[in-house]
Amino acid sequence: MAFGHDRETRMPSIADSRILSVAEKLLVILVMTPFLYIAVTVLAHGVPDLPSSGDAALLELSTRNVFSRWILLGPYSRFGFFHPGPIYFQLRYPIYAVLGQSSSSFLLGTVLIQMLCLFFAWKSVRSSGARAVAPLFLASAALYLLTTDKCVWLSEWNPLIVILPFMLLVVAMAGAVSGRLACLAAAVVAGSFATQTHIAVFPSIAAILLLSIAIAAWPRLVGSARRISLRPKPILISLLLLLVLWAAPAYQQLFPGDAEGNMTRIVQYFRESEPQADSRRSFALWQSTMTNLELGWLRDGPAVRSVAIGLRLVLLLAAFVLLRRRGDHPFLASLSLFCLMLHAVSWLSVTQIRGRLEDYLVLWAGVVPLLSLFVILAALVVVLRGWASVCLRGAAALFLLYSCVALPAEVSDYYRAELHPSWTNEIAVAELSRQLRNNLEWDGSTFYVLRLATPSQWPVLFGLLNSLEKMDLPVGVEQSRFYMSAPVPEGMASRTLLLGMLGQTAMPVPELAARWDRIGVLLQ
């Protein structure tokens, strides 16, 4: 499909093209400097293999066993179901296996995912008729990284690892509906990863999909008078990817065995429960997330943030009207329409959160101001042209030069050198696993099954399971809503390790196996 071209564009010479190509690649490297810095540092020095607990332990357990135990679902949700699929575990496994199950593998895996998302988002921008404004996209991404806590975009935790994949989905879908169907495969992979890993993004992804179908069916919505040429090859490749990526959760839903289909559980939960958060608290949290890019460092009230969001919406609407009227920038027009819609959908998503309202549940929405800033700046380049346009793009390049120094400095201390005194669960895991390894019989005749006596100690229990598994010791867990039980190997006797708070009547005391502070493991 072909769209109208810039009326003032001249055909660049071969030398100009080569210079531009080298410059663009340098700008991409600049925005990736914090991730490259982390990768080089980790490969050179490693990361201490400290014990994990809670969600981190569950993520590592599922990564280690994703293929050996055929894990078909995603991370555990606090609402009693699992996130839809295991893509995250499958992507983490190769690095985890190659690096010997070390803690370094998780940081490197996170870095690789984020770098790929930034790279393919840039490629989608560049290949969708918006090559001239690609530096503005990279500068917007760098500003997002600078204004967002490094513990967000370097975290392996599943509610946070989906942020940049969600951004890639939005950008790639804008490229696909503007005629660049090669972007569709990236959108399928990124959207599947985000949805399967943290279901909070699903309403926004569904809204993007519906709006994309509307644009594809009626291209005049974004200013094009031509229909999109539905070439079969990229569509077939994308459909094949979709089938492969969703095969595991579909199989679990169709053949759940003794359990219930996970998709059924998700639907039932949201049908039978009601949002509990106060509307004022929900709006304040959404406001904060949606203005962190511009106002995160200021001490201001909700009125200032409301004005900032209102101004952004006005500028986005003006950009959309301008781009649609011109008709020769369908990618930018589609992206501006996506951003307008995502403001509303993200707010509705926050109002539907069940249970306790936590900040991390909303952080994925920080993608919306990032992309909104890019669209507004890109529309400004379209309007200004000439030297003004060149100066704006030059300013973006200079900002990227600044970010390549500031961002590595920002992440230079992102390493866990030792256990922090406040990490009581991790300290308990380290001490209890050491005592269990040294004081129990591990001659291959006994399989130890961990069981909870005190429900609140589940983070320590799964930390213990993970720690002992990494030592190749024969240990499992009883049936749990958090994780699958392990069958007792043939020819081995089963004994129970009961974990809970010492001194409680729920704890029988046939033989004390290990203890730390008020937490104990008893051998039954």
Describe this structure as you would to a colleague.
By secondary structure, the protein is mainly alpha-helical. Helices cover 60% and strands 6% of the residues. The protein is built from 21 helices and 5 strands. The protein has helices spanning 14-31, 33-45, 54-65, 87-98, 104-127, 134-147, 150-153, 158-161, 163-177, 183-197, 202-217, 232-245, 247-254, 262-272, 279-295, 302-326, 330-351, 367-384, 386-411, 424-439, 458-470; strands at residues 446-452, 475-477, 493-501, 512-516, 519-523. The protein has a 5-stranded mixed β-sheet. Strand 4 (512-516) and strand 5 (519-523) form a beta hairpin. Helix 5 (104-127) packs parallel to helix 9 and helix 16 (302-326) crosses helix 18 (367-384). The longest helix has 26 residues, at 386-411. The relative contact order is 0.13.
Would you kindly provide a brief summary of this structure?
The chain is mainly alpha-helical and 524 residues long.
Chain-wise SSE layout:
Layout: H1 14-31, H2 33-45, H3 54-65, H4 87-98, H5 104-127, H6 134-147, H7 150-153, H8 158-161, H9 163-177, H10 183-197, H11 202-217, H12 232-245, H13 247-254, H14 262-272, H15 279-295, H16 302-326, H17 330-351, H18 367-384, H19 386-411, H20 424-439, E1 446-452, H21 458-470, E2 475-477, E3 493-501, E4 512-516, E5 519-523
Parallel strand pairs: 1-2, 1-3
Antiparallel strand pairs: 3-5, 4-5
